[in-house]
Amino acid sequence: LLDDPSTSEEISRLGAKTVLTVGRTRSFDDSRTVNESSAAAEIKRARDAYDIAASAKRDVILMIASAASNTVAVATAENAGATIVELPRGDPRTVPAVAKKLAAMPNAPVIALGAPFTVELGYTVSAVRSGVEQLGGGYLAFPGRTMVALYGHPSSGALGVLGEKGVAATVKRAHQLATTYRDVTKTPIVPAFEIIATVASAGAGKDKNYSAETKIKDLLPLINAAEKSGVYVILDLQPGRTDFLTQAKLYESLLTRANVGLALDPEWRLRPKQKHLTQIGKVSVKEVNRVSDWLATLTRAHKLPQKVFVLHQFNISMITDRGRLNMTHPELATVIHVDGQGGQGAKQGTWKYLHEKAPKGVFWGWKNFHDEDKPMLSVKQTW
Questions:
Q1: Measured at the alpha carbon of residue 295, what is the angle toward residues 294 and 299, in degrees to the nearest 5?
Q2: Residue 304, burial from CB neighbour count under 10 angstroms (0-12, 13-18, 19+)
């Protein structure tokens, strides 16, 4: 553009007294060529010389991976009065200072320049501007914390330790369990519940799907208490002959809460004519991705912090074509939860095997069975 004759006309129209050209370009009258590395400083001097007041600064944010490697863009933005934010990883949720700056300028348009900004920036910016953080602080579920959960259904201890006591005692137990892990690590530990929202059933039921869907009103006492006391909640689905997405949508109102995530348990996903405990269930990766698409859209629409999305697995066949899991949703932290039971040799062998060729970017979970593991790992061994 500098070689275009119309550029001289535009400079004259603007009434510029000094022209700075960056790099090797043709000269204009009263122009001075500067190196790219010093362009920003030169423009700042020019602004100061012509008394561009701070009050003229515009409410615009330029996010850039590195100011040093994009001096021309930075100089242009600064000359226009924009606020410059360096963000090498491209996600404002990863840098507290950047999140704070975005929250302090809630109505400022954001311009992102460069390769790192490949995540859905509209969601990540709105998430930090919402002010709703994860339990323990921050906007990402993982990394940066570990969740330690009680598992089961609130109506029965037969399905896990979560159902052995009443609401208040269960909340207390979750916090006590978290404390035992804080004794062996400096990693932030968040207490959690994994509640079986839909329970695999021996009978077909009225809807013929071999899954008993718990009513929301029956889950609310425990979920409300968890929210009040700083306990994360994961709703676990055992869908029988229906599909995961159909069941997930039943609990949409709960999943709009900032402290509620979702788990899929393929062991209990039946094909037509199958019944529970006669085979290990399985789910296609396409069905899993339909659920993650829906959950990510819900999270984004409600400007919620990142949600935990758990996939239970103790056999490679439980999730067919697992390598094609959609890992592109910035709204979700996807966890493969290794939940087999029995002897430690077999369990740890499964743990190692499931890590092979796992999708890049997944996080990992491990389950201890108090009665079935022979022996069950201690807190220190588990860590």
A1: 120
A2: buried
Measure the CA dihedral 244/246/250/254, to 10°: 50
Residue 194 near residue 207 (C-beta atoms within 8 A): no
Can you tell me which residue has the tokens 């899993």? Answer: 288
d(CA 191, CA 7): 63
Given the structure tokens 């629409």, which residue do they identify? Answer: 301
Q: How many helices (H) and strands (E) does the chain have?
A: 12, 15
Residue 336 corresponds to which tokens in the numbers above? 């493969």
- HSE-up of residue 265 (Cα within 13 Å, Cβ side): 23
Decide if pLDDT at 153 tops 90: yes
Cβ atoms of residues 327 and 359 within 8 Å: yes
Q: How far is the C-alpha of 220 from the C-alpha of 159, rounded, in Å?
A: 18
Q: Which residue spans within the chain are E strands per DSSP?
A: 19-22, 31-34, 61-64, 83-86, 110-113, 146-152, 189-200, 211-213, 232-237, 260-264, 283-284, 307-313, 319-320, 332-338, 363-366
The one-letter code for the residue type at 319 is I
- Those residues with Cβ within 8 angstroms of residue 132's Cβ, 6 or more apart along the chain or in another chain: 258, 303, 304, 305
Helix (H, G, I), strand (E, B) or coil at 74: helix
Question: Does residue 283 contact residue 244 with C-beta atoms inside 8 Å?
Answer: yes
Q: What are phi and psi of 133, to 5 degrees?
A: -105, 170
For residues 341 and 312, is the Cβ–Cβ distance under 8 A? no
Per DSSP, 270 falls in state P
Q: How far, in Å, CA of 42 to CA of 35, rounded?
A: 10
Tokens of 191: 């207490």
DSSP 281-293: --EEHHHHHHHHH
Strand-strand pairing, 189-200 and 211-213? antiparallel
In terms of Cα–Cα distance, which of 131, 96, 89, 132 is closest to 112? 89
Reported as a pLDDT band with limits 50, 70 and 90, residue 7 is confident
What is residue 196's three-state secondary structure?
Answer: strand
Q: What is the pTM of this model?
A: 0.83
At residue 335, what are phi and psi to the nearest 5 degrees?
-120, 130
Q: Which residues pair with 233 in a beta bridge?
A: 193, 260
The count of other CB atoms within 10 Å of the CB of residue 207 is 12
Provide the pLDDT for residue 46. Answer: 58
